[in-house]
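dude i think i finally got it to work??
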Amino acid sequence: MVGEVVRAVRSGNWRALVASFIYFDHSFSVWLLLGALGPFVAEALGLSGLEKGYMVAVPVIAAAVFRINFGYLFQHWDGRIIATVGILLSLVPHAYLLLSKLLGFEVSYTDLLWMGVFLGVAGASFAVALPMAGSNYPKEYQGLVLGLAAAGNVGAVLDGVLFPPLAELIGWEWAFVASSVLLFVALALVLAWAKDATAKGERSLRPWLAFFATLTFTAVAAVGFAEGWFGVSPSVGKLLLPVAGALFAVLLMPPVWRRVFLERDTWVLMLAYSITFGGFVGMSSYVAMLLTDAYGVSKVEAGLLMSLFAFTGALIRPLGGFVADKVSGATAVPLFVAGIALVNLAFALFTPPLALATVLFLLLYTFYGLGNGAVFQLVPHRWPDKTGLMTGIVGAAGGIGGFYLPTVNGLVYDYTGSYNLAFLLFGLVALFGVAVFLLLHRSYKEWSSVGGKEN
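look at this
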């Protein structure tokens, strides 16, 4: 496979690929920062299980919503412009925390919620980094190249390795501020090396107006649902945030783009990615707190284990794309999702000792990474003229899955004192995804193989 990777990288613009990777990698790290620092924040603010789950889920769902906006923007605007604006907006929480330390005021739980929305802009980088990287390479290497760019998931490793130890030394607020260095490095590479070779529609301000309207709405909704502003209890309102945010973003899209939601395949790939990437990002945002709750490990040890798991899933993602290029995503996706289902069901049956749990989490993240790469092999084959838009939409579904995983984990732990029931629910959803793909396997094989029929 090494030779194949070298040939793939040399077949296009490697500098643009590196810039896309670093942009996604460093943005991904900042996006999940609250997950790594979660045990410190929860201890400092005395948060409940549901509050912890919601706090780390807000950046995840915000990114899901903004991926729809970024997919829309990418159809009309150069990816470098979108990436630059995204990085600058992602720095807003860092600037606020820096001011809080310099001026001596406290950051509240409510502050963390609206700040989490701006961190979600960093997570939306996926909808720009992947199609921008792929635009510089030929079709026969799309699965592998998109897998390489999306291996920026490894940014979660930086969270667990760097920031919990730093938080022990200087406090979680200063550790958070220090992560801004990653965004400045990404900005420099985007400006120097990134290139978007995608054909664009006519430039319009409408996608930007839609994005900033969605950003404002999501920030208000994230805080409002938690505070009970909209006539529903906070526990129910927190579960409604993904629906409200996604609907708002979709309604602001032009009718011509909304038509993709009438296609069966849109929903099938959204389901698959909500399981694979939703599992990866949702578990990465919560696993440090799960380990401290269920196994009593220290906050720093939990961060290191989170990094190990995330590194495994991110590193193996290109292999998922490579396998899908060879056998088609139609064959690879149900196999990998079945693996996710089996590991979740194993956790549902009993709470294993830490050593065995570590092995199971490594296996789970392996299937997450393979599945992520395989799902996105299908997107440019199914929608060759709408890859940017569909990257945003399918990526948004992954974020929605990633929102519910930590939120459900927090709810289940509050009510049962363990996580077994949550794993059972996740396993059953994955089994449903396998069944759907098996039913559609024959028709998907017609267009998902390289050189196959395009729809």
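The chain has one domain: 14-448.
im so relieved honestly
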